[in-house]
Amino acid sequence: MSYATGTRVLVRPGDPDHHTRVPGYLRGHTGEVIATLGRWPLPDDSARGITPPRVETCYAVRFSARDLWGSGDHTVTVDLWESYLDQP
Amino acid sequence: MTSPDEASPDHTGHDGSGHHDLPAAARTRRLEERLIVAGLTSDDEIDAFLTGLYTSASPGNGARMTARAWTDPAYRDLLLSDGNTAAAREGFGELSYQLRVVANAEDVHNVIVCTLCSCYPVSLLGPSPGWYKSFAYRSRTVREPRAVLGEFGLNLPAQVQISVWDSTSEARYMVLPARPAGTGGLAAGELAALVTRNGLIGTALV
């Protein structure tokens, strides 16, 4: 599914046993889509030699430091492919 | 690109064991040979790429775009909405990534990091500094950016919001620093000379 700018999204929890571009510190956290970047091959597939890899929309998702770490007043924005996200 | 070597079973840190104690050039060559054997590249292609990179990649490129954005509002709008087209207007039309430029303002300061490896727009900022690839910078910038920036000598007022960008995709981020006060009379070349690589990463004001 696709996510409009402004949508709250959940980063899927779990730690796959293959290459992924989901930084561990985001797993299970909720952020807000602030931009749609483009459609690119999913690195999880490319790295495993799966051809053709899934091609998915990638989003810039913003997290508050307080949500991620329990403290801090900054934000962290991370680019995440659609498969990495779910509805909160 | 993204190939976190901390995931390698051979990664043993700096205690002298594992292949990390091989000189970097030998390790790089080993990797190149594997890629060539796999048919993914060739020595000629690697040489041509590196020659092109090291003769053209420079923070002067990002600085020139910044100086133009400071004096040309339409270019600034383009840079922030479509970085690749803006880069092409300054002669950098062959970027291998989507360029996203984020602007500093009175109340927001941007800083770039790549927690997974060391992604960064090399062609516009030049080869990345060693600290950008360090575990300390990569892990601490998302956790405590104000403290990290303080260690660079950049002590931001408490009311300035820090916005960290973790480069995990095919996009590459560049910071558009705010134009310093008192630079009204400077020509484009003089303005560009004020802009540093750290300013384009966000670890300096300009």
Quick recap:
The complex is a heterodimer of chains A (88) and B (206). Chain A is mostly beta strands and 88 residues long.
Molecular structure report:
- The complex is a heterodimer of chains A (88) and B (206).
- Chain A is mostly beta strands.
- Chain A contains two helices and five strands.
- Chain A has one domain: SH3 type barrels (Roll).
- The longest helix of chain B is centred in the N-terminal third of the chain and has 14 residues, at 24-37.
- Classes of the chains: A mainly beta (88), B alpha/beta (206).
- The A-B interface holds A 19, 21-23, 25, 37-38, 40, 43, 58, 60, 65, 68-69, 72-81 and B 2-3, 7, 98, 100, 115-116, 142-146, 161-171.
The main β sheet of chain B shows up as:
2 strands, parallel
Helix content range of chain A: 10-25%
Number of strands of chain B: 4
Dominant shape of chain B: globular
CATH domain topology of chain A = SH3 type barrels
Outline type of chain A: globular
Structural class of chain B: alpha/beta
The biggest sheet of chain A amounts to:
5 strands, antiparallel
**What order do the SSEs of chain B take from the amino end to the carboxyl end, as H and E?**
HHHHHEEHHHEEHH
- SS-derived structural category of chain A: mainly beta
| Share of helical residues of chain B | 40-55%
Question: Architecture of the largest domain in chain B, CATH level 2?
Answer: Alpha-Beta Complex
Oligomer: heterodimer
CATH topology of the largest domain in chain B: Nitrile Hydratase, Chain A
Number of domains of chain A: 1
Which spans of chain B of ≥5 residues are poorly predicted at pLDDT below 50? 1-17
